[in-house]
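Re-running Olfactory receptor to confirm reproducibility after the cluster update. Everything else is unchanged from the original entry.
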Amino acid sequence: MAAENSSFLTEFILAGLTDQPGVQIPLFFLFLGFYVVTVMGNLGLITLIGLNSHLHTPMYFFLYNLSFIDFCYSSVITPKMLMSFVSKKNSISYAGCMTQLFFFLFFVVSESFILSAMAYDRYVAICNPLLYTVTMSPQVCLLLLLGVYGMGFAGAMAHTACMMGVTFCANNLVNHYMCDILPLLKRACTSTYVNELVVFVVVGIDIGVPTVTIFISYALILSSIFHIRSTEGRSKAFSTCSSHIIAVSLFFGSGAFVYLRPSSILPMNQGKVSSLFYTTVVPMLNPLIYSLRNKDVKVALKKILNKNAFS
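Result of re-run:
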């Protein structure tokens, strides 16, 4: 009955990031620049890994999929956010809102699990280098990837199905720049206890399981690093891990801050700012902090540039 009652609401109005007219155009160009860098960085990395056979290893297999996920979920969110800066009425249909919500959740949950798969890959490479080829075989990598996207689909379906059962009020103004769970629940006319419970349980799993996996992996990695006698070996191992730890902290920290707190004590404007980190900043930085500091990627990029220059 709730789903039937909510169907009369044909559209939502997205308030956007800010309602101050003086900063709308500067913010438009700022986030347009972020989006261009995000698209170029992630598509460039996808192309580079695909064209260079030396990068066809488990580590770059996961980086390839990370870039694909970052590109997709940034594209799900940012173009609509840019419209809020230049249009007087930034509306989105009910079906469009639920679609955006589903794909946003699918890619953001997939990202949390791909990060944990990358941490496991680094654990095997550093702690069991002699068994790395066997442990991270193509079959294992494929199964891990299926698990990543499977968890993304399950999480997105759980949240979207619950949201489609919510009865929304006549006031359809959503105080956000996208269709996210908590801002939509604030427009509900009925109790949202079940929905918020689903948020805490599902998001707790989607953040908790990868976080525990990453912490255990890095605890074992650090233990192994401290047993390395060579200073150069330690430095190389720390360099490999530091970028991943920074990105993981930004992604999971901002996500936990937004979703693992009761909506009644989290100001929505503060939630919007926190959401910017994992919807805009993290996808833009990932190609830099994961790959451009990597020697193999730099060598592959130079080869392609030199080849094109020679041609």
